[in-house]
Amino acid sequence: MDTIIIEGGKPLNGTVEISGAKNAALPILAATLLVGGTHTIKNVPDLRDTRTMLKLLETLGASHKREGRTVYVDTSGLSGAEAPYDLVKTMRASVLVLGPLLTRAGYARVSLPGGCAIGARPINYHLRGFSCLGVTTTLAQGYVEARCETTMTGATVYFDIPTVTGTENLLMASVMARGTTIIKNAAREPEVGNLIDMLVAMGAEIEGRDTDRLTVQGVQSLQPATTTIIPDRIETGTYLIAVAATGGRVDITQCEPTHLPALTEKLRTAGVTIEEGQEKFTVSCSEQLADNRCRLESVDVKTLVYPGFPTDLQAQFMALMIQADGTSIIHETIFENRFMHVAELQRLGADITIDGASAVVRGVEPTGLCGAPVMATDLRASASLVIAGLAARGTTEISRIYHLERGYENMIDKLQALGATIYKGSSSLV
Ligand code: EPU
């Protein structure tokens, strides 16, 4: 099985270009199901997850063609309405086909995703939202069957928690529903805004973009559209943190600086210099130690919905705090089980104690961090191990790297170009 081998302790320098956002590409690809024809999606990252979504669209009868960063999806002839367990188990975001299939075909059968490495992650709010629109949902043999005998009818839907994919699913289910749908306590993540732009380009009428109250006026018809995927803010944040952890100076280009307000604030407080430009960050140390690293102060972090600190950067930020001066409390409020990386970071010498939903991270001297074999448990945990491996002295070998390939485009190449010693290996032990 493939592994990633890192010889740590080197600063990162140069320029890294950010790819399109995985979590924007997935709902937008699903949205192509809403109306038959050829949709043009630009800046689509080539990742395991986007390939899985395209495979799922194929099983539903769509076809696609990739030319560089642009993907053309032809959804003229749909021949199915089922997302099979084999695909859903590898990518939970497969549930995003529920909303568009209900609009297009009035019926969808999608395997329930089950729990995952970061929490139980039920889809009860998605299903409750659909039922407000007049959809009947039943559960049989591990599959959700959703059916609407007549056209869906607009309704007011309130989410107890502002769920990201729940909001996206409801938007896609309501764009052609009769009358008005109001989504209260909607997610405000930039990826939701990107989907709204796509839906509006298709002819949908949606008000309230970037707010927690979305109003959808159902329309009679939609047409295929052209959309550009926004830059991946989580990939951007991962590189910002990586440079903070190793020292050096890096230009991060083709990104959207306004999408990371909480992270940049926390990094600056920790002692990192971040300059913001047009689609660009430049990151370096405010104060450099003798070995080129940044002098880092501990800061506390609490994950929250956007524009709060993203849960998808919690693990990476912890990998930074393990070498900061003092103690940092990292509080995870979105997912109940998102500390799987802690035991692996401890193998590198980190001093972390978990106390319920909080991790108490006592910074150790950078010289106290030493490479070791570690195992990736989920996508963002993998990124945190890469960051810790880049910062630690000696060799770190990360196994189960398929998690990383789900969400980071060409990460090894990008880090090599910045001067890191990182390459693919293989191990028969994992
Ligand atoms: N929740 C429910 N019931 C629901 C829906 C959500 O209880 O019906 C709970 C979840 O269990 C969680 C919270 O509500 O505790 C928020 O979950 P949300 O629904 O917002 O998460 P998601 O839509 O499943 C997306 C991203 C995740 C990201 C979260 C939070 C995609 C494809 N996935 O998941 O991304 O962590 O929002 O921002 O957009 C990743 O990229 O590594 C990743 C996990």
List the helices and strands and how they pair.
Layout: E1 2-7, E2 12-17, H1 22-31, E3 38-42, H2 48-59, E4 63-67, E5 70-74, E6 82-83, H3 85-88, H4 98-105, E7 107-111, H5 124-132, E8 136-140, E9 143-147, E10 156-158, H6 164-174, E11 180-184, H7 190-201, E12 205-207, E13 213-217, E14 226-228, H8 233-246, E15 248-253, H9 261-270, E16 272-277, E17 280-285, E18 301-302, H10 314-321, E19 327-331, H11 340-347, E20 351-355, E21 358-362, E22 373-375, H12 379-391, E23 395-399, H13 402-405, H14 411-417, E24 421-426
Parallel strand pairs: 2-15, 3-14, 6-7, 10-11, 18-19, 22-23
Antiparallel strand pairs: 1-23, 1-24, 3-5, 4-5, 7-9, 8-9, 11-13, 12-13, 15-17, 16-17, 19-21, 20-21
The structure holds uridine-diphosphate-2(N-acetylglucosaminyl) butyric acid (EPU).
The site of uridine-diphosphate-2(N-acetylglucosaminyl) butyric acid has 24 residues, from helix 1, helix 5, helix 6 and helix 12.
Provide a descriptive summary of the structure in words.
This protein is an alpha/beta fold. Helix content is 30%, strand content 26%. It has two domains: 2-19 and 231-426, Enolpyruvate transferase domain (UDP-n-acetylglucosamine1-carboxyvinyl-transferase, Chain, Alpha-beta prism), CATH 3.65.10.10; 22-228, Alpha-beta prism (UDP-n-acetylglucosamine1-carboxyvinyl-transferase, Chain), CATH 3.65.10.10. The strands form six sheets. It has a four-stranded mixed sheet, with helices on one face. Strands 2-15-17-16 form a four-stranded mixed sheet. The longest helix is centred in the middle third of the chain and has 14 residues, at 233-246. Uridine-diphosphate-2(N-acetylglucosaminyl) butyric acid binds next to helix 1, helix 5, helix 6 and helix 12. Uridine-diphosphate-2(N-acetylglucosaminyl) butyric acid (EPU) binds at residues 23, 26, 93, 119, 121-126, 161, 163-166, 187, 191, 311-312, 334-335, 379-380, 407.
